[in-house]
Amino acid sequence: MTRILLLGGTGDALRIARQLDSTHVYSLAGLGKVPDDLACAVRVGGFGGSEGMAQYIADERISMVIDATHPYAAQISANAAHASRAAHVPCWALRRPAWQPQAGDDWRMVGNWNELTAALAPFRKPLFTLGREPLAHLDEIPVHQFWTVRCLDPHQDATRARIIATRGPFTLEGERALFALQAFDVVVSKNSGGGATEAKLEVARERRLPVVMLRRPDLPAVDREFDSVDDLLDALRVLA
């Protein structure tokens, strides 16, 4: 019998977890809300790197790893691929397609925080949708800028920053209202793909705002890749 270790933390991963029975394990890093309505076991916390994950796979008699983490969780994905090889079990990955620029988009691609801040230099009111990373840089905000940072983590506002602690999905109407109220002049985003947070890009397009887009990291090769939850679930049903 196949026993799955599902690495998650995304809405896509939760969809997969809802299809798993008590044989399987859904693993979360511990950020955000921990679901309490799943039939599968839920594990919260890290493994101690790839070696720790490999040991967990062996100890728990895991026979397959599914990496359904965020496209920017490169270290976790690398650990999953390495641990699976070390434990001699297959590793599947859900790799959702990246967003693609459309007519009228003004995307400025960057590869790291230094490139990002350089690209933001001409602007005054950026909206950050990168997660928690900007919280570590609130003491570096240029004097001509006021940041709005949207992330999961509650955090007190800074002298020149507003923190919005919330979770997607975000609607088009809600994003339009936020942009109109705050008068952002640039959006800062990861190229996460999927529909849960895409509305901000449509509003940026409508308002002709530039988007500073953080490039996706390189992810490791795995035994099978899927670009949709449905395709992955169909493949699991074949195994059952």
TrEMBL record:
Group of enzyme by EC: oxidoreductase
Q: Which pathway does this polypeptide act in?
A: Cofactor biosynthesis; adenosylcobalamin biosynthesis
The cross-references to Pfam families, in alphabetical order and at most eight, read: CbiJ
Gene Ontology molecular functions: precorrin-6A reductase activity
- GO biological process, any: cobalamin biosynthetic process
Q: What is its EC number?
A: 1.3.1.106, 1.3.1.54
Is Oxidoreductase one of the keywords UniProt gives this record?
yes
Taxonomic source organism:
Paraburkholderia bryophila
The protein, known as: Precorrin-6A/cobalt-precorrin-6A reductase
